[in-house]
Amino acid sequence: MRFHQLEHRFVHSIPSTIEPGVLYVSIEFATAIHLCCCGCGREVVTPFTPTDWKMTFDGVSISLWPSIGNWNFPCRSHYIVKANRIIEAASWSHAMVEAERERDKRTKAAYFAGQPQDSQPTEQPMEQQNTVARPVDDLAARSATSGITGLWNWIIGKNKS
Ligand SMILES: [Zn+2]
To answer: Cα(119) to centroid of ligand 1, in Å?
Structure first.
């Protein structure tokens, strides 16, 4: 893991250049973006919704929950953002990632049908720790299926500027 902490920055729109080591947070669009903490430079978008991530700001630092599983990136990095620090988490097996994707699909379907249930990711037993993770999804696929238009507008706005 190349970055062990992130500096948070509250922004209205995403700057055209995303600096490594910075977590950009937009309250208006209820989402955050940062470059993958492994150092690979991929953009990691973490929308805040009842079925995605939750952001906690204690006045000094930011925490995100659940952990961030970059299974769609070649690096497959997995970490937790806690009080602006990056805590590396164990890698998941393919079966664990698939199980979480299925659970996430069911939760989202129930949520958007107005029947919230089981909105927290399942705890997965780990060798060294218990953790939960949300996979970072492909943005295009997400916007088509999730109904998170705010996030999509944010991305479009970013590309326009
Ligand atoms: Zn990475």
So the answer is: 26
For the chain, domain boundaries: 7-160
Burial 77-102 (b: 16+ CB within 10 A, else e): bbbbbbebebeebeebeeebbeebee
- At 121 the pLDDT is 60
Compute, in angstroms, the gap from residue 2 CA to the centroid of ligand 1.
Answer: 9
State both tokens at 40: 């690979």
Q: Ligand 1 mean position to 107 CA, how many Å?
A: 27
pLDDT digits (tens, 9 = 90+) for 15-63: 889 999 999 999 999 999 999 999 999 999 999 999 999 999 999 999 9
What spacing in Å lies between the alpha carbon of 110 and ligand 1's midpoint?
A: 31
For ligand 1, the distance from its centroid to the CA atom of residue 139, given in whole angstroms, is 16
What is the model's pLDDT at position 158? Answer: 58
